[in-house]
Design a protein that fits this description.
It holds the Pfam family BPD_transp_1. It contains 8 helices and no strands. 30% of the residues are buried.
């Protein structure tokens, strides 16, 4: 089979895998962002214990390979009586991993807000939680958008790792077609091109958000 005919025939399978890749990344981003908010708040907490717990978590998740984390969750947890199907195991691993990176971005953004704004909020009678919610949080989110967007772009590529636990995302879809056609080069190149297109689209969305959230400049 010539490469053109091969790609035309395999494209529906690859696009289906790409759609699952997007769903995987978005789900992991949502759950990871929720966990990242908690970790970031723990990291700036007045409780020393919460700060230590958050730092240990971030250190472990950033200091160990994502592939190992996937294996621990999918193959290791059953020994403790916790068995997960490939899809939830993959989402859990990706969410837990990206949460560590995003929490540092959010913590840095929060700490980047001028201390005077905290003091001004307290002088108005706002509590620490109210200050975070209404004053500091919105500004920190604006600052963190570039880093959060980069995390999502990286997450798109990291989804390829869940193919090792039989999740039929883009890479796994390409491998299944390769197993039937024995033509790896055009299919791997096509899968790489689809990943690249997805990342480019997300970069475009990122630039739009950054322009809309940018502070007005004085002339």
């Amino acid at each position: 089979m010539n490469p053109t005919a091969l790609l035309i025939q395999s494209m529906p399978v690859l696009l289906t895998g790409a759609l699952l890749t997007i769903k995987f990344a978005l789900l992991s981003m949502v759950f990871g962002l929720a966990a990242a908010v908690v970790l970031a708040l723990m990291g700036i907490s007045t409780s020393r214990s919460l700060v230590v717990i958050s730092r240990i978590y971030v250190s472990v998740m950033r200091g160990t390979p994502l592939l190992v984390q996937i294996f621990v969750i999918y193959y290791g947890l059953p020994s403790l009586g916790i068995s997960l199907d490939p899809t939830p195991a993959g989402v859990l691993a990706l969410s837990a991993n990206v949460a560590a990176y995003m929490s540092e971005s959010m913590r840095g953004a929060i700490l980047g807000i001028a201390q005077g704004q905290w003091l001004a909020a307290y002088s108005l009678g706002l509590t620490r939680i109210q200050t975070l919610r209404f004053i500091i949080g919105p500004q920190a989110l604006r600052l963190a958008v570039p880093s959060l967007s980069n995390s999502l772009i990286s997450l798109i590529k990291d989804t390829s790792l869940v193919s090792v636990i039989t999740v039929t995302e883009l890479l796994r879809s390409a491998q299944e077609v390769i197993a039937a056609t024995y033509q790896p080069l055009p299919l791997y190149l096509t899968a790489a091109a689809i990943y690249w297109v997805l990342c480019m689209l997300l970069e475009g969305v990122q630039r739009v958000f950054e322009r809309r959230l940018a502070l007005p400049t004085r002339h």
